[in-house]
Amino acid sequence: MGQRKGEGMHDATTSDIEMLNRYKGTLVKACAIYDRNFLNKRVTYITKSKTVSLVCKRNNFMHLCGIDYYNENPSRFYYDCKRDKLNFKEHHVRIKNDGNTPRKLQVIGCLGDLLIKGKVRLVGNTITYFSNYNYVLRSHSAIIDLGCSWGKNNYYPKSVLNLKFEQFDSGEEIIDILIENLV
């Protein structure tokens, strides 16, 4: 049985809020990368044997960061990041119980690495301790993974993973990356 929204998260403590505030600049930069390179785009990764297209929406960004912002409001989180107006307050922010929020925030600024042809690899049907993914896109430098799952006729970004804490096969080299605007 899947988890309901908000399960696996807790209200951010004072020390959690301090940690989140240290990552504000990183979140703003990551949002700019996401906005410029992923938002409302179909990003297609091609290997010798597979083609995987990823559709990225505004609502995916908050989940990638491992944060629940103002009652699960991904639009507000996205726009607050974009305008550099993030406001982390107790009882308005939740983070993951499993410790993955800081791990995600350590690498979220590397999203752009997943668009460098020859520097990205595709790993199929991946299951980790915390979740499962149809595909994982990983940087060649083994720093960041983007877990992708199938839903609503597209793959979508499900999770950012810090490879210091995860082990995956090396996967197949991406030989081409195509980016198509959807709007």
Automatic annotation (TrEMBL):
InterPro entries: PBECR4
Phage-Barnase-EndoU-ColicinE5/D-RelE like nuclease domain span: 27-164
Domain of life, source organism: Bacteria
Record's protein name: Phage-Barnase-EndoU-ColicinE5/D-RelE like nuclease 4 domain-containing protein
Species: Companilactobacillus nantensis DSM 16982
